[in-house]
Amino acid sequence: MTRSTEDVSPLVPRLVLAAPSGAAILALTLAPRSVVAPARGAFMALAERFAAPLVADLGYPQLESGLNAVLFIPLGAALALLLGRRLWILAPLLGFGVSFAVEYAQMRIPGRVPDLQDVLWNTLGAAAGAAVAALVLLGGRARRRA
Fold it and tell me: What residues have CB less than 8 Å from 103, skipping those under 6 apart?
């Protein structure tokens, strides 16, 4: 069975979405802590300033877990879009693989501390991004049928 031209989405725009997400994850998770600390501090300041009512009762560990999830949402969405309608469900599994690889690599980087809880939050973020992308993918299909 061949796919129609309407079914095949351009690969390049999807790669353009995935590349910055992957680059940000690699930069923020594999760079030495001294390089990443200013970015983490900026995120925490933004969270306190713009989401104060939502984060008022959260401590630093909870905010950091949220940061881990937020960081992987774009990756999950980009992977789901790359995989398309039939295979998007694999995006959280790929997000888990990326997260596990990052945590494994952090064992060899001085000043970095790998944490299995980070893998959990990163995977949840990838799953959330994949779910949003799936709604877009499946919603587009439903509109074409109507």
Answer: 114, 115, 116, 118, 119
Average pLDDT, the chain: 85
pTM of the predicted protein model? 0.81
Q: Is residue 77 part of a domain?
A: yes
Could you tell me if residue 84 is left (phi over 0), alpha (psi between -120 and 50 degrees) or otherwise beta? left
Segment holding 16, helix H or strand E = helix 11-30
User: What's the CA gap between 127 and 121, in Å, rounded?
Assistant: 10
pLDDT surpassing 80 at residue 144: no
Q: Judge whether 131 and 104 are in contact, CB under 8 Å.
A: no
Provide the residue range defining the domain that includes 17: 11-145
